[in-house]
Amino acid sequence: MKLEPKVLENAFVRLEPMAEAHREGLRAACNADQAVWTELYPFSWANEHFEPTWARLMGDQAAGTTQPYAVIAGGEVVGITTFYAIEPANAAVAVGGTYYRPDVRGGPVNPGAKRLMMGYAFEAGARRVVYHVDALNGRSRAAVLKLGAIQEGIMRQDRMTWTGRVRDTVVFSILADEWPAVRDRLDARLGAFA
């Protein structure tokens, strides 16, 4: 498996490797939903937390441990999604760290972005694409299942969030041999938005 940062695009969304040019657009998108950061994320991008979180992301990107993408829709940065836990030897990668501005949730942006990322990962030789979701995040759990992922289990008391809450993490995956059927269903779903 060899994943190189590159632009990914379809009719609904454009994913650009995260760069300084996306910084202020991402800041504005992240500040559009203040409550989500204290309720559902292990870290915060809002307000005074933006700069240290940006610095950590850029450091992880430079180290090659994360490939973050600016999510562009309608010519604007509307969020972020990443490849992380990249394991070339195991042909496995996680997709996550995803956030979207509230006004683009529930439409084609998330399935469009995930179609691009999973397609690229499997084309690059992935055997397994994984999603890790906070057990309290019902909306994201439903979205990942709707993508076609299989719930594998729940890692209890998996991590500490920035607020001090101990989170349980639900693990989902899609395997390479499942991808063609998942892809076809996802393409049909996206076709309904066209």
**Rg (CA only):** 16 Å
Q: Could you tell me the number of beta strands?
A: 8
CATH architecture identity: 3-Layer(aba) Sandwich
Number of domains: 1
Spatial ordering of strands, largest sheet: 1-2-3-4-5-6-8-7
| Largest sheet geometry | 8 strands, mixed
Instruction: Write the CATH homologous superfamily.
Output: Gcn5-related N-acetyltransferase (GNAT)
Strand content bin: 25-35%
- What structural class do the secondary elements suggest? alpha+beta
Share in helix = 25-40%
Strand and helix order: EEHHHEEEHEHEEH
Head-to-tail CA distance between termini: 32 Å
According to CATH, what is the class? Alpha Beta
**3D shape:** globular
Determine the mean pLDDT.
92
Q: List segments where confidence is low: pLDDT < 50 over at least 5 consecutive residues.
A: none
Number of helices: 6
| CATH third-tier fold name | Aminopeptidase
How would you sum up this structure, described in words?
The longest helix has 15 residues, at 109-123. Helices cover 34% and strands 32% of the residues. It is built from 6 helices and 8 strands, in the order ββαααβββαβαββα. Helix 4 links the parallel strand 5 and strand 6. It has helices spanning 23-30, 34-39, 50-63, 109-123, 138-147, 179-191, and strands at residues 8-9, 14-17, 66-73, 76-87, 92-100, 128-134, 150-160, 166-175. The radius of gyration is 16 Å and the shape is globular. The mean pLDDT is 92. The protein has a single domain (8-191), classed as Aminopeptidase, CATH 3.40.630.30. The protein is an alpha+beta fold and 194 residues long. The chain has an 8-stranded mixed sheet, with helices on both faces. Helix 4 (109-123) runs antiparallel to helix 6.
